[in-house]
Description:
The protein is of the alpha+beta class. It is globular. The relative contact order is 0.17. The chain is 49% helix and 8% strand. Helix 1 (38-58) packs antiparallel against helix 3 and helix 7 (231-239) packs across helix 10 (299-315). The protein is built from eleven helices and seven strands. It starts with 37 loop residues before the first helix and ends in a 7-residue tail after the last helix.
Amino acid sequence: MDEIAAHKDAPTVLTSIPRHTAAVEPAARSLEPRRIPPLNIALFLLTLLTTTTAGAYMNGEEVSFAHPFLAVAALRSGLSFSIPLMMILLAHEMGHYLTSRYHGVDASLPYFIPAPPSPFIIGTFGAFIRMRAPARTRRVMFDIGAAGPWAGVMLAIPAVIIGLYLSDVTPLDKSAGGLELGNSLLFLGLSRLVLGVDPSTVNVNLNPIAFAGWLGLFVTTLNLLPVGQLDGGHVIYALFPRRHRTISVLFVISCVLMVLVPLALGLNFWGGWLLWAVLSVALGLGHPSTIDRDTPLNPRRALAAWLTVALFIVTFSPVPLAFVQPEAPLQPQQDEHSQEIIHHVPHYDEMLRRLGCVRI
């Protein structure tokens, strides 16, 4: 989803480390305003359009740009999804960018990646920045890597809370099946706090704002995966520079097991973990060494690093998405002790029915 891409010949790994004679204090650096490149603006606006179309699609609207006035009216309903999602993604990337600038690391402004909206695609593949120079120390590497997830989650949590207040809650009914969202510890805790439900089973048809917040938490999880040069890889490198590759290998093995073990037991699983295992190996399990690898994190940063690891744990879900087949209704006495809250993608049935009706 989101990754800090390196410069030149190494798309994900910095292999050429320039020499620096001395570190410059942040206050002494010149942070001259930069003009926003036209490409960044165009990609942002295009992604705003595709995510808004996806949001309108979730609300059951028909969007056809062959009829501009009708399309504009339909797109208005999609803003409740696209605006919070774009704000979360922008906050994440600007966290990386501004921290890079603070430390004097040359980095690009965010590039957004639009995607064609459909019931299974939310109108974007995320966003990224490019680091054109390496971080000089593990402390700088940690600051840049952790700033994005924390900035994004600070907006994702309010979006979840507001959206849950606006969501529809109904008694549990698995007879219809459908696309169910995984419950991380954080999302489940917020659901129980905001909705005020007992730990009994309910269905929650998420408001688009809540779905955007859920996606923000999911993006945070993916970026904090402890592998390679993802944000989580930067954090692990800052904590354990000599064990980073071993932890990356263990993560890849875990991705495979999260698919194979449930498959063997007949349980739900998310096949996307296999894709992440392949991508992790293809993009590289290692991490470029900073010029100063031996200076450890100071106590304040070490605490922040472990809190970032905790953030990954509370936003992680082993099965973030699952298509559940319809089940026969359970008898009331069989369902009394269930502790599950089932969250559904907004208006999923309507989205499927209108699959052929939405055009860009």
